[in-house]
Amino acid sequence: MLPVKVKDPGGQTWRVCRRWVPWRRRVRGAFDWLPNLPGGDDPISMVLSAIMLILFLPVILLAVVAGLEILLVLLVLPFALLGRMIFGRHWTIEARLDWTPVWEESAGSWSQSGRAIQDVATAIRQGHLPPRNLPPE
Fold first, then answer.
1. What Rg value do the Cα atoms of the chain yield, rounded?
2. What angle, rounded to 10 degrees, do the helices at 57-87 and 43-55 form?
3. CB neighbour class for 120 (10 Å; exposed up to 12, middle 13-18, buried from 19)
4. Which parts of the chain are beta strand (E)?
């Protein structure tokens, strides 16, 4: 089942879905801060580009770390799914306001978590918003 996207009565978009790995991603928005370097083939543009590259090196490193985290998630995902199927681990469902996680709860097996996703999405659509149980990011 794909994430369920619903709007509350206030018009805010919520996404209710299963969390596939045992942790929440920590690095977000790393690619939003990458600068547009000045173009040109004159010496002034070269100096400005070098200064911008030095200033934004931490952001570029953060983008690399975010990419490595995505690769780690892709590497661990098959083992996490296999472990859930073999050991019967409960699925965690989460509600996100836009893309920010707001609420999560253990929901049981695959079918139980599917029903819980539909129930939470229906409650949000009717205006019964889940309580915030995650710290703000």
1. 20
2. 40
3. buried
4. 4-7, 13-19, 91-97, 100-108
The DSSP bridge partners found for residue 87 are: none
Residues in the chain: 137
Give first-to-last CA distance, the chain, whole Å: 27
pLDDT for 79-119, tens place per residue? 887 877 787 778 889 999 887 888 999 888 888 889 999 99
34 — pLDDT class (breaks 50, 70, 90):
low
Could you tell me if residue 98 is left (phi over 0), alpha (psi between -120 and 50 degrees) or otherwise beta? left
Q: Domain residues of the chain, as ranges?
A: 4-20+28-125
What are the residues whose beta carbons fall under 8 Å from the beta carbon of 91, sequence distance 6 or more?
18, 19, 84, 106, 107, 108, 109, 110, 112, 113
Q: Work out the angle at residue 20's Cα, subtended by the Cα atoms of residues 81 and 137, and round it to the nearest 5 degrees.
A: 150
* Token pair recorded at residue 7: 């709007």
Would the pTM of this model clear 0.90, i.e. be above it?
A: no
